[in-house]
Amino acid sequence: MTLNQQQPMTAHRGLVGDDAWAWVARNGWSGSAPSLLQLSANRLSTESFSVARIWQSGARLSRMPDGKGEAVLILIGIDGLSTVRSGGREWILGPNRILIADISAPIELRSSDPTARLEVLTSRHRLGTSVMLLREPILAMDIEDGYWRTLAALVVTVLGTGIDTGDPGFLSLRTAIESVITAAVAQSASTPGALRQSHVSALSRAQRAIEERYSDPAFSASELARSLAVSPAQLHRLFAPTQTRPYQLIQRRRATRAIDLLAQSPDAGAHAELVASQSGFPSVRTMWRTLKLMDAV
């Protein structure tokens, strides 16, 4: 496994448009976005290892396979929801969730709203047995909160201290990150029902339903629950690990669409009613209020 050559430590804040896409490409991804891509990231890398902390606006990213099959890409959700697709299957990435992907197959990562995640690229033989013997395209687990916080804090600390990959102690820091990942996976694997595939499948169906129906002003959290054949209480429990309410996700998707349409209009005020209608808002007033709450206006 060989990473793209670049400076061992990079810190980029507030990248927009072409600059953001250039960073994405250096990190092994390509893709598209419904509007101007915004990104803030820190990355530390060597020829055989990288760790990054990434915040980005909604986008659809793709990663081409590495035919050697020696590397794994580890995604740790921090904020927001993304859908990860590989081998014809889908998984949800969100807070307290880890996905370990075999990068010998193509990977797609997409979200309609801003998200934050950690990415670690390393050799599978440096992780635990459950990862070394990975046979599925992606191993998905919910991480216990203590392990998730420990891993996030360790990565943020390493990325924020200006450590040089040439330091004698760097290998120990790399090992520490990999050891916490291994511990988190081992702890989750020992918990009954850790993979919760039915839970993940329901979240994926909910996200698809929102994407398909957000432009209907009558679509609500109650309608979402009915479409999934669950009660409103069950729907809220389903989304509890994401720390986001279903109604908030629906409104965020509508707001994202409204922002895109307003950006395309030379006279936003004159077309506000049409934008509100096409975005799923019942009124212009509701649209402006929602955008204001999101600090989008």
TrEMBL record:
Protein's GO biological process: methylation
Keyword terms: DNA-binding, Methyltransferase, Transcription, Transcription regulation, Transferase
Domain of life (superkingdom): Bacteria
Domain HTH araC/xylS-type: 204-297
Species the sequence originates in: Herbiconiux ginsengi
Presence of the UniProt keyword DNA-binding in the record: yes
Protein known as: Methylphosphotriester-DNA--protein-cysteine methyltransferase (N-terminal of Ada), contains Zn-binding and two AraC-type DNA-binding domains
Sample GO molecular function, one term: methyltransferase activity
InterPro entries: AraC-bd_2, AraC_XylS_family_regulators, HTH_AraC
